[in-house]
Design brief:
The chain is 30% helix and 21% strand. By secondary structure, it is of the alpha/beta class.
Length: 328
């Protein structure tokens, strides 16, 4: 858990070295608004780098369509292209006009359009939302199941916990005096040791095998995993974490849920899983059902099929033998 601040043009002249000395352990910097770069963006990034302060970015939305959101994403990517943030790129949508003039579906599409463009560029995309927006103005499951959440819910004290959780990775709890300025204050529950842009140095891809319904899997604490699609070297807690199925269409199949407070959030590679049911002793009916799924294309083809079935704990050879039998 780390204490941080978020800054924008409102904190012009802020000395981030001094902010670090006064307890700031990370900074989320406003990169821009609409399609314009924040006037203090470069100064804050320069200050964070000079202070050795880990940082991420946020972009303030003025979009009224998915097309406009993509334009905002393009402006954001242009602004941040020379930097290597340690924290995600958050999309901040909170305008009253967006509440009055847009539907639930439209707001959700706007957020997803921005975030998907950020992800295509190799960054981790997150969302900044307050409980009212989460409960009333976006399709909650569509957002929270896909992007890390920076929750804005002021209790005005880091010791007075928010009554909302939502598996947030950052909580904005209020504001405090730093360097003589009132600055928004945050707590981050996610340990990030490297930049969040995935360079894909190993040239590989994670295995996207789906676990059959009812199967639980876990992996031992201390192993690395892929957090939101970018290998950031995150370490799990000493205890185990539970893996549950994600909604259909999610970017990665395994949702990591911490067994402890604060915890770990992200997506775990299939080869890290230790399953509780090897699925090697299927009944004849179960074997045939799975083989029919393979024939229908639900498990991919060739090596992809082998990887997915193996990662989901099936005996690949038995399944393939049944497939061959059924298609004769």
């Amino acid at each position: 858990m780390k204490n941080g601040i978020d800054v924008s043009y409102c904190q012009a002249g802020l000395d981030l070295k001094q902010a670090k000395a006064e307890g700031a352990e990370f900074a989320i910097i406003r990169a821009g608004i609409s399609t314009r770069t924040d006037t203090e963006f470069l100064n804050h990034v320069k200050g964070a780098k000079a202070a050795g302060l880990p940082y991420g970015f946020y972009w303030y939305s003025r979009a009224f369509s998915a097309i406009e959101a993509k334009s905002e994403a393009e402006a954001c990517l242009k602004a941040i292209k020379d930097y290597k943030p340690t924290y995600p790129i958050f999309y901040d949508m909170e305008e009253g006009d967006q509440i009055e003039g847009l539907s639930l579906k439209e707001r959700t599409e706007i957020i997803c359009a921005f975030c998907e463009e950020i992800k295509k560029a190799g960054y981790t995309a997150g969302v900044y939302l307050n409980p009212s927006w989460i409960e009333s103005y976006v399709e909650k499951k569509a957002i929270l199941n896909r992007y890390p959440l920076w929750l804005a819910h002021w209790t005005n004290s880091p010791d007075k916990e928010s009554c909302y959780d939502y598996d947030k990775v950052i909580w904005q709890w209020g504001a405090k005096k730093i360097c003589g300025m009132e600055i928004d204050a945050d707590i981050c529950y996610m340990e990030l040791d490297e930049n969040v842009k995935d360079k894909a140095e190993d040239g590989g891809e994670s295995t996207d095998a789906m676990l059959p319904p009812g199967i639980e899997a876990d992996f031992l604490g201390g192993e690395q995993y892929k957090a939101s699609g970018a290998d950031v070297g995150v370490k799990a807690p000493a205890d185990r974490v539970k893996i549950t199925n994600m909604a259909k269409g999610a970017p990665h199949p395994y949702h990591v849920i911490s067994t402890g407070k604060g915890g770990v959030y992200g997506w775990v590679d299939a080869d890290k899983l230790k399953t509780t049911d090897r699925r090697t002793n299927l009944s004849a009916d179960e074997l045939e059902k799975t083989a029919l799924e393979v024939i229908a294309g639900k498990w991919g083809n060739g090596e992809e099929r082998r990887k997915r079935l193996t990662a989901a704990c099936y005996d690949y050879d038995k399944i393939q033998t049944m497939v061959n039998k059924l298609i004769k």
